[in-house]
Amino acid sequence: MCLGVPGKVVAGGEPGAELPMGRVEFGGIVREVCLACTPDVVVGEYVLVHAGFSISKLSEAEADEVFSYLREIDRLNAEPMP
Predict the structure, then answer these.
(1) pTM for the full model?
(2) What is the average per-residue pLDDT within 54-58?
(3) Do residues 48 and 54 touch, judged by C-beta distance below 8 A?
(4) What is the Cα–Cα distance from 36 to 54, expressed in whole angstroms?
(5) What residues contact residue 2 under an 8 Å CB cut-off, 6+ apart?
(6) Domains of the chain
(7) Among 23, 26, 28, 41, which residue's CB has the most CB atoms within a 10 Å radius?
């Protein structure tokens, strides 16, 4: 199973670089991400990231929806098993 995680672009890469990279924040953790598949993304926008590659842009509302699902999964995992 593959999992794409939304993140907020906090820094763009070097203009004109052969492989466009940027810094993306995931809940306070910032990672370097390849932006080759989303070349028009700008700082402040959200992207869906899989295996270190930004595979699509997301609206803030779409990203918030995924974050709510992830919080719910975390809450359910914290509950004791019957």
Answers:
(1) 0.84
(2) 96
(3) yes
(4) 7
(5) 50
(6) 5-78 (2.30.30.140)
(7) 41
